[in-house]
Amino acid sequence: MKKCVIIGGGVIGLCTAYYLQKEGHEVMIIDQSSMDAGASYVNAGYISPSHIVPLSAPGVIKKGIAWMLDPASPFYVKPRLNSDFLRWAWAFNKSCTKAHVNASMQVIRDISVFSHELYQNITKEKGFDFHFEKKGLLMLCKTEKMLEEEIHVAEMAGKVDLEASVLDKKQLKNLEPHVEVDAIGATFYSCDAHSTPHEFMSNMKRYLLANGVEISSNEEVLDIEIRNKKITEVKSAKRTIKGDEFVLAAGSWTHLVAKKLGKNLLLQAGKGYRININRETGIKYPAILAEAKVAVTPMHGFTRFAGTMEINEINNDINPVRVEAIAKAATSYYPDVSVQKEEMQHASSGLRPLSPDGLPYIGRTEKCSNLVIATGHAMMGWTMATGTGIMVAEIISGSKPSIDLTPFSPDRKF
């Protein structure tokens, strides 16, 4: 049994703790936040094997430049003369190739399908009662051009054994009889599932506490002691914490903590927003509004609209222009649904940790022999959380990894 200290209490940190304690390790989690907000709580709740195309894909740079001129666009990058950002941007640009997409699809598919199975296993475990449904995911399209693009992606998904189909307007109406859908068609991924994030997070924290895991919120790591390439302790304002193994899963803050180890981890924060509608919308199926890049999720007791990718400095500021863009997209695709001003005023944001190539960092680093890094999942953190957690536990326990970790190496070159 090892004493394992996890830095970061988001969904990746909690899932890692879950599998480590099942392996019989002594586990503690420390997080600088209150652990009740952020990306792990405001995401779309998708467990989406269908999302096989990484963020760094051909055409993204061109679209991004055009979108930068539109304050309400779904994708925005704030240019800045910051060495961390410039290195990340250069690596991102190098990754935007067809060859990279082709090489990444199977990798993304495998960890996502694996995670989906693990989520299903957790739903059957005593003490868990969170909302989880496997109903599939719609990619709603208003234009022929977008539908053609989504059909192409669906065909790519089929090549890695993911079930996808194409629906016309009539078939859409049959799926969603209780709400008007303004779309000419859609692709549909029956392999996908969805959940209500705060329920899972609450369930998981309750389970961990009941099974001996120490959770400490509002505790920031200020310093890390290293001897002979091995972490001996971490220091917070409250105390000094010793351990045998350390896991760095601090989301968009991970690269800042990694600097204390002398590790330059290429990572940027991508802000997303969500609006909750706590009334009946008639929407029964999760959907992505393809042209607007907005996710729609019928959660437990409410409907969530989430979107935008705003790559900027780390902050929790709410941009009302982007919130309004999400609200307008909702009504554009669902004319029966009108987002009220008060609902927009209660919008929240979260920061997704973005690696340059769209693949997460999962594994050990040459900098420290007793450190495992787990971050950089971009929009797929919720999807890949359980798979990431069990693989970190396998690394620490010395077990054979369920999935080849090579593509996820924190030391990979860009």
Write a compact overview of the structure shown.
This protein has 414 residues and is α/β, with parallel strands linked by helices. It has twelve helices and 21 strands.
Describe the structure.
This protein is α/β, with parallel strands linked by helices and about 425 residues long. The protein has one domain: FAD/NAD(P)-binding domain (3-Layer(bba) Sandwich). It is built from twelve helices and 21 strands. Strands 4, 6, 7, 8, 15, 16, 17, 18 and 19 form a nine-stranded mixed β-sheet that branches. The radius of gyration is 21 Å and the shape is globular.
List the helices and strands and how they pair.
Blueprint: E1 3-7, H1 11-22, E2 26-30, H2 39-42, E3 46-47, H3 60-67, E4 75-77, H4 83-95, H5 98-123, E5 132-133, E6 137-141, H6 144-159, E7 164-168, H7 169-175, E8 185-189, E9 193-195, H8 197-210, E10 214-216, E11 221-227, E12 230-236, E13 240-242, E14 245-248, H9 254-258, E15 268-277, E16 287-289, E17 294-299, E18 302-312, H10 320-333, H11 341-345, E19 348-354, E20 361-365, E21 368-375, H12 381-397
Helix pairs in contact: 1-8, 1-12, 5-12
